[in-house]
Amino acid sequence: MFPGMGGMNPAQMKQLMRQLGIKTEDIKAKRVIFELEDKKLILENPAVTSIIMQGQKIFNVIGDPREESQIPEADIEMVAEQAKVDKQKAKKALEENEGDIAKAILSLKN
Question: What is the rounded distance in angstroms from the CA atom of residue 76 to the CA atom of residue 86?
């Protein structure tokens, strides 16, 4: 039941939405990824619904988010070159040092 909807159950709500020309569709998604400017926001096993209303498609996503920082490839290459390590070690050092290039290089040289 939805608050404020007069005790309307979900099936009645869907029927009312159809009558108003609003179409919904559940989307079976394994993961939803939002690529932000400096990080990724990832939702595993999300509940995703698409809603078509007045010619516009809207997506409703519900889930538990986790953030993943994005390290620029140029930073990884610079740390690898300066610390004389492979790119994998350089990336790990950057992640551990929150993207701080100087700290990552120093951590690899110690």
Answer: 9
